[in-house]
Write a structure and sequence with these properties.
heterodimer; A: 247 residues; alpha/beta; seven-stranded parallel beta sheet; 9 helices; 7 strands; globular; B: 79 residues; mainly alpha
């Protein structure tokens, strides 16, 4: 489904990002797999995917808190002199705290990683897409928290809602250049981040779902694949919930 | 090809204009240098000079002459 597409994916070290790299490789994409720190197991993971699927899965490391590192990573990608067909922004942080307990530093850090850095990195990648006049697809990872709220996730939800607002205007601006922009809003997905929550919280959320179990990382990765693939060439400016019918 | 020739070529090819139209040319001074044309120009300059421009410089690139100044001062391109 993604044969001969070159796709940049951020947040690949674990969870949804790691699964997305696997599914994209299985479907023929070459992947620039971005992670915040070098990791031997991840290098091996990328190497095996490269071998098994005859694609190129190349790790790129940078910290989303560091604008200089973000630019250096974009420069590395630019110097490859290849078309970039897709960008999937998955990297994010979550520092749960009730409203009156949120520190200013946590507010800044959450927005830095979940919003500002994603905008900056995407600016660079869009320039590469425009250089090659590529019909590109950009996907951001929001959250159902952006729409439904969740106690203890004021900053996280706000940063994820900011992505939705940005996406709507980016889709308007970039559509003429053939670049689509969409958002996926995952619900409760079985990831290391979710597993850090108490059983009580997880059970409470599952009760709100039409399909009453945790989503799998594969469920989200498959939606990324659809939005990056040519199956969705007329889909832009949309937010798609992958949440098992959460109410 | 000198850097100045490369710079001129980037403008002429991006905006489909002749070299004699370059002096004094400003952003939105011709129909083809609109916001989309601007990003095409940036992409062309980045490719031509093997650079990646900061967003502040993308915004500052307001004229043909200003672009030379930016490339000289921020990217060590000699003219």
């Amino acid at each position: 489904m993604l044969k001969e597409k070159n796709v940049v994916v951020t947040g690949c070290l674990q969870g949804i990002g790691k699964e997305t790299v696997k599914i994209f490789a299985e479907n023929g994409a070459n992947i620039l797999a971005c992670a915040y720190k070098q990791d031997d197991a991840f290098e091996e993971y990328c190497r095996l995917l490269t071998e098994d699927h005859k694609v190129r899965v190349e790790p790129i490391y940078f910290d989303m808190m560091d604008n200089t590192a973000i630019k250096a990573a974009a420069r590395t990608i630019q110097r490859l002199k290849i078309e970039i067909h897709g960008l999937v922004n998955i990297a994010g942080i979550n520092r749960d705290a009730y409203f009156n307990m949120i520190t200013e530093q946590d507010m800044h850090d959450t927005f830095q990683v979940n919003f500002f850095s994603q905008m900056i990195f995407t600016q660079y990648i869009v320039k590469i897409m425009q250089r090659y006049k590529t019909a590109g697809s950009i996907v951001f990872t929001s959250s159902v928290t952006a729409f439904d709220g969740n106690a203890g996730q004021v900053c996280y939800g706000a940063s994820k809602a900011a992505l939705v607002g940005a996406m709507k205007s980016m889709a308007l601006e970039l559509g003429a250049a053939g670049i689509r922009v969409n958002v996926i809003a995952p619900g409760v997905i079985d990831t290391p981040m979710t597993r850090s929550l108490s059983d009580e919280i997880i059970d409470d959320r599952i009760k709100k779902m039409d399909i009453p179990h945790l989503g799998e990382t594969e469920d989200v990765a498959n939606m990324f694949m659809y939005l990056i693939s040519d199956l969705s060439t007329h889909v832009t400016g949309q937010t798609i919930r992958v949440d098992g019918g959460m109410r | 090809m000198t850097n100045l020739e490369l710079y001129k070529k980037s403008f002429c090819e991006t905006f489909e204009i002749q070299e004699d139209a370059l002096k004094g040319l400003v952003y939105q001074g011709i129909p083809s240098w609109d916001s989309v044309g601007h990003m095409n120009l940036v992409a062309t300059l980045e490719e031509a000079f093997d650079i990646m421009m900061d967003t502040d410089d993308v915004i500052d690139l307001s004229s043909y002459e200003k672009g030379i100044e930016i490339l000289k001062d921020h990217y060590d391109i000699g003219f």
